[in-house]
Amino acid sequence: MGVLIRTFSRKFGSLVKNATGNSQNLQANYSNQLLKASVRSFSVSKQSSAEADLVVTIESGVKTIRLNRPTARNAINTQMYKDLAQTLYDSNKDETTVVNVITGTGDFFCSGNDMGDFRDNTLEPDIEKKKIWQQIFEKFVCSLIDAEKPVIALVNGPAVGIGVTALGLADVVYSIDKAYFITPFSQLGICPEACSSHTFPSIMGYGKGNEMITFGKRFTAAEAQSCGLVTEVFASDAFSSETNKRVKAYAQLPVKSLVYSKELVRGPSRELLHAVNKREGVANFALRETKFHKDAIMSFFNKSKK
Fold first, then answer.
1. How far apart are CA 77 and CA 68, in angstroms?
2. E strands, the chain, where?
3. CA gap 24, 259 in Å, rounded
4. What is the pLDDT of residues 215-267, one digit of tens each?
5. Spatial contact of 191 and 185, defined as CB atoms under 8 Å apart
């Protein structure tokens, strides 16, 4: 499938050219604080056991990638970023996968970065080790940019930080009505990630996009749908049955048609998205060295101890 899409991309590009000339309790405390104010956060591990941080199953063409840390509200740690990137890249080559589905276990979709990992990275004195974490995160974003098959997000509850920004790289986003969406980057002294500095203003409009990624405004599911981030909102009692019905129907469609259609939509912007991912990484790497950010992280942990 990789050879197929690369061949198609070359042909399509040519046509265009010619035509134009510890962490679990702390994470729960963190999420609780967000209900009152605003602060940042996603999870993965490729085994299929119920205890794995990421549960990956394939059935009838649907690869379901389930964030499986309900006691940590599905916060993403470093290993999970590695595993999620790997499973998305594997999907490109896997003939049994037609569509990718990302969802969460329990009442949360994703509470963002694992705050224990985030603190350790912030306070790590070795710059080279910090660069490794940044590279792992950026590779996860790359795997969403490079996904050749549709990525469908089933947002089963609140989404924070990377749990929100990654949605801008999904192809379809279905949300439960009780979900909310928040990206409190500025409150932590950092800045947008996962290409959201480009995707959110493009999807939501310049003003609404900035309200979310710059000012950390909390959006309800209905508000997120009204500005295009969410495709459709479902009532709590119908969310699972209705979204599963649609996903199963999508997986019956011819995979080559889906891949070509996605390439027509994503292909022209892929190079730009990779550049945005790098630019955001440079900015966030610099901001994580500032006193404001380090103080914000330590303030969070000090509050969590009380």
1. 12
2. 54-59, 62-67, 99-104, 151-155, 159-160, 172-176, 180-182, 219-220, 232-234
3. 38
4. 999 999 999 999 999 999 999 999 999 999 999 999 999 999 999 999 999 99
5. yes
What is the pTM for the complete model shown? 0.85
* Residue 196 belongs to some domain of the structure: yes
Q: Match 């990779």 to its residue by tokens.
A: 274
Give the position of tokens 């080279």: 128
The enclosing domain of 117 has a CATH number of 3.90.226.10
Give 30-87 as a DSSP string: HHHHHHHS-----------STTSSEEEEEETTEEEEEE--GGGTT-B-HHHHHHHHHH
Residue 15 CB-density burial (10 A; 0-12 exposed, 13-18 middle, 19+ buried):
exposed
Domain that holds residue 136: 22-238+254-301
Cα–Cα dist 100/150, whole Å: 6
Asked if the structure places residue 137 within a domain, the reply is: yes
Is 29 inside a domain boundary?
A: yes
- 248 is a domain residue: no
8 Å CB contact between 61 and 251: yes
CA distances, 215 to each of 28, 38, 186 (Å): 23, 10, 7
Query: DSSP 3-state helix, strand, coil percentages of the chain (rounded to 5)?
Result: 55, 15, 30
Return the amino acid letter for 188. Answer: L
Q: How many domains does the chain have?
A: 1
Confirm if 304 and 37 have CB atoms less than 8 A apart.
Answer: no
Q: Smallest Cα–Cα separation from 151: which of 101, 80, 109?
A: 101
At 227, is the secondary structure helix, strand, or coil?
A: coil
